[in-house]
Each structure stands twice: as structure tokens, then as C-alpha cells.
Design a protein that fits this description.
Chain A has 11 helices and 7 strands. Chain A is of the alpha/beta class. Chain B is α+β, with helices and mostly antiparallel strands. Classes of the chains: A alpha/beta, B alpha+beta. At the A-B interface, loops of A face strand 3 and strand 5 of B.
Chain lengths: ~280, ~100
């Protein structure tokens, strides 16, 4: 994108979770479930002296995409790093379960997950982990009927248990600004040492876990500009495409064989990772 | 974390409800709802302790310039916003309620 285009475009990343959800649904179709004025918020953060957000950082937006019933689940990355607590996790899992129910009742309903999250909310520990497991199960159920589209736009990215949720999605959409991986850079640095993984070296981090790299290595399905209209168009295209022929987690043997073939005595760079994954994993 | 409450005289209840902002670093969430006629109630939940007098000064100054303000229940969930950001969020919320009423 050159400078003049950049100035004219509307950034998707600069929108908050509620605005992102509204921008994806058909104009005027959005209605919020368990919204901020219902004040269903975390009972645990307050006990630990932390200010809560009225919607616990999760927007459940019901509406239509291409005129078809849809639910958009938007994580607010600015609130507690988009972490999944008991309430925000239950909202996401519950909404996905209801969407699957609607499909069984003959109302085809698809889901879009806006993932900006470091994973489980550490202050809510096992309750958050249990909720993430429920989200995984609900995605696996819903994706049999209709696409579950995961989006990592940035700049938080998607990590931990919620990156597993991304891997379970029918389709994954990323931008150049996104990061997507199981462990975040600081966690890897702490465990493996700064010589191996310097979390402050941003070009290095993005060259391995950035959206462009994840798309090039087949771990994401679409690569889009940070632009509201481009994002909207890609979601509409995937919604129309329906359930994909094969799912990433059903090709686990392929991925394991690839990982087995890698010489772990040398740290591969971005280009080498692309070469390794280019051999067989691209669907 | 600290919770601070204020009350101010007001006119008729506000015409609608609105939410602005997020509980993110240097920002705050404002939930504005219609209040009981004649009274504006403010509840501030803030991550910064010991700043009650600054909050009072901010609201005193705001409502001094708005003698005809509607009655509101205001809930602020603050994550270290500066007074300037707080004031802008409050004005944004009041402007949005007016816009909604105009539609």
C-alpha cells in the first residue's frame, strides 16, 4: 500500500472490538447480546484490585453477513491484553453453542472470531482454561455446519489456548501486523534464553510469527491489508465459500512428519521455515 | 483500585444511554444512562489510588459549565486516563446521547 492509499483507507486495527464487529456485519443488522449495560462482568478481577470492563472485554454481536444469520465474537485487546476469563470465555463458548443449535434447527448461522488475545487470563486461572476448552469444543461442533472464520488483525495478536482456537477454525485471516503462535515472544525468551529468541527484536519476531509468514507457511488462509473494506470483502468471500473440504487439524500427520524432518540443532530463519513448510503442508 | 462516588444537581433524565471508551492503558470506559430526575450520580472505579480530589475538581468544573445538564447515572471504569482524556470521553458520551435523541 503506498502512502496516498494508506491515507484514504480506514484502518481495521484502529477500531475497538465493538466497532470491528459492526464493520463486519451487514449495515444496520448488529444487535448485541449480553452487552455492557447488562454488566455481566468478571467477579474475580475486583477481588484482586483490578478495574473491570462492563462487558468483560468480549462483544457478542448478532446480525447478518451476506444476508445470512451470523454471530461475531470480538475480543477487546486493550482490556487486560484480551485475556479470556470466566465470563468472557463463557460468553464466547455460549454464543458458539447457540449458533450450532440454530444450525440444527435449520437456521444456518456462521461465526467470526476476532482474536486479539494473549490467551487465558492468569488472574482467573483454571476458570479461564476451562472456558477455552469449551470454546474449542464449540468451534469443532459449529464448523461441521457453517464456516467459523478466525481473524487476527493485530496488534495484540493471538496466543496460548486461543491460538489453538484459531487452528480449529474453518479459515484463518491475518494481516501483516498480526502475530499468531502458541507461546508469546516473552514467554519463549524466558524459557529458551535471549540468545535464541530476543523478544525485543521486532523484525525477528514478525519474521517468524507475523501474519505474512503464517500465510506463507500455510498456517493462515487469507492475508489482507489493514483496511475495513478489504477485511469485509474477505469475510464475505469466506462466508460464501462454506465449509472447507479439509481442516488443518485433520492433517495432523502431515504436520508431524514435517516437524520430524527438521534438524533442530540449527535455528532456521524465516526463509528456511517457508521452504520446510512449502514442501507439503500447503492445502 | 478505588471507588469514588459524587452527586450533582441536574434537570430531566437523559434521553438515552451510551458507552464510550475501553478499560485500556491510559483510557477509560464511560457508561452513561438516564438518571433519577434532578440528580446526576457519578461512580468512578479507578486503578489509581488517592486521586479523589482531582476527580472532584474535574466534575465540579465540568458541571459548572453545564447548568442545564440532564440527569445521568455515570459509571466510569478508569485505567489511568489523564484528566484531559476523561473530560474528552465525558463530552463524547454526552454528545452521542444528544445525537441519538436527534435521530
Amino acid at each position: 500500500m503506498d502512502k496516498s492509499q494508506n491515507l484514504k483507507s480506514n484502518s481495521f486495527i484502529e477500531l475497538n472490538a465493538r466497532e470491528r464487529a459492526r464493520s463486519i456485519l451487514d449495515t444496520g443488522s448488529m444487535r448485541e447480546l449480553l452487552g455492557p449495560f447488562d454488566r455481566v462482568t468478571s467477579p474475580w478481577l475486583k477481588e484482586q484490585g483490578i478495574v473491570t470492563q462492563a462487558d468483560d472485554g468480549l462483544v457478542v454481536a448478532k446480525g447478518t453477513i451476506n444476508g445470512q444469520s451470523a454471530v461475531v465474537l470480538g475480543i477487546e485487546g486493550s482490556f487486560q491484553g484480551g485475556s479470556m476469563g470466566e465470563v468472557s470465555g463463557a460468553k464466547m463458548a455460549g454464543a458458539l453453542e447457540l449458533a450450532a443449535e440454530d444450525n440444527r434447527k435449520g437456521i444456518p448461522t456462521l461465526a467470526v472470531l476476532l482474536l486479539e488475545t494473549g490467551g487465558v487470563r492468569l488472574q482467573e486461572a483454571n476458570l479461564g482454561l476451562a472456558a477455552i476448552a469449551e470454546i474449542h469444543a464449540a468451534i469443532a461442533d459449529l464448523r461441521q455446519y457453517q464456516p467459523v472464520i478466525g481473524v487476527v488483525a493485530g496488534t495484540v495478536g493471538s496466543f496460548g489456548g486461543m491460538s489453538v482456537a484459531g487452528a480449529l477454525c474453518s479459515y484463518m485471516v491475518v494481516t501483516r501486523e498480526a502475530r499468531y503462535g502458541l507461546n508469546g515472544p516473552q514467554v519463549i525468551e524466558q524459557e529458551a534464553g535471549i540468545e535464541e529468541y530476543d523478544s525485543r527484536d521486532k523484525p525477528f519476531i514478525w519474521s517468524l510469527t507475523g501474519g505474512e509468514q503464517r500465510f506463507a507457511t500455510g498456517l493462515a488462509d487469507r492475508f489482507v491489508q489493514d483496511d475495513v473494506d478489504s477485511m469485509n470483502a474477505v469475510i464475505r468471500e469466506l462466508a460464501k465459500a462454506g465449509v472447507p473440504a479439509s481442516l488443518r487439524d485433520q492433517r495432523i500427520d502431515e504436520f508431524l512428519a514435517l516437524l520430524d524432518s527438521i534438524d533442530t540443532n540449527v535455528q532456521p530463519n524465516s526463509a528456511q521455515v517457508r521452504e520446510i513448510f512449502g514442501k507439503g503442508v500447503k492445502a | 483500585m478505588e471507588t469514588i462516588k459524587f452527586e450533582y444537581p441536574a434537570k430531566q433524565p437523559a434521553s438515552g444511554r451510551v458507552l464510550v471508551g475501553v478499560v485500556g492503558s491510559g483510557d477509560l470506559e464511560v457508561l452513561l444512562e438516564p438518571g433519577e430526575s434532578g440528580k446526576t450520580r457519578v461512580t468512578v472505579n479507578t486503578s489509581v489510588d488517592g486521586a479523589a480530589s482531582q476527580w472532584r475538581a474535574l466534575f465540579d468544573r465540568l458541571f459548572a459549565t453545564l447548568p442545564n445538564a440532564a440527569a445521568m447515572n455515570l459509571e466510569l471504569n478508569d485505567f489511568g486516563a489523564t484528566p484531559g482524556v476523561v473530560r474528552m470521553r465525558l463530552e463524547q458520551a454526552m454528545e452521542l446521547v444528544k445525537q441519538q435523541a436527534g435521530k
